[in-house]
Amino acid sequence: MKLPKTAHTDRSWRIHEITGDFRLEDVWALPTPGGPDDFPRLVRQLAEGDGAHRSGIVRALFAIRWKLGELLGWDGPDCGLGSRVRTLRDRLPPDLRDMPAGPDLHAVPFTSVYLTHEEWALESANRTVHAILHIGWVPDEATGGYRGQMAMLVKPNGVFGVIYLTAIAPFRRLIVWPSMIRMIGRDWQYRQRQFQKLPPHVRQHPVPNSKRRNNDDLACHGTTAPTTESPSPDCTELF
Prior knowledge:
Blueprint: E1 2-3, H1 6-9, E2 23-29, H2 39-48, H3 56-72, H4 94-97, E3 111-115, E4 119-125, E5 129-140, E6 145-156, H5 158-196, H6 216-219
Antiparallel strand pairs: 1-2, 2-6, 3-4, 4-5, 5-6
């Protein structure tokens, strides 16, 4: 479900400290009902997503996008983090910089900026935009529990970047994001059923404390439920 932007801006997220020059594009509620300590499970689920279960329409849209990027040089090494733009980790206050960064995304180049007990921020850059994916864990007033919340912040690269983001906005908001969020919900429900079958001592899943920037950050902390039969949504079908 799409949310008003105040659902993001009114919260005291740490992301606000480093994104004053970014524009908030969209905010979405994620269909991931849980308890106050379930955020690491959501992080692990999204980090493991490989995009293999995208819908046919979404696969076609992204095949076109990646082909255009290849032909026009939008995604080359000189267009990304550390070259065209500096990583947002350079902006982090000391307490966040000293914490483990969290896992990067598996399917496409979104790099983790920081991970706390209720926030996960990732960034990606190409010739069109510097983008931030922000995942939070928030109280759900409708159920009395908690759920995930996702926001996308962008900093377009000049006039071309503004035109590009404007052109793709209808596809992203009407096709890509709704499809992605449905997949996240289906995978969450599948993993929830598997999680409930585990013995209580295995269900403990603190925020990762390893400094390794890969999926091993979560492998020994989240549910050990099998994922081979579960759809693995790619939370990076965003721009």
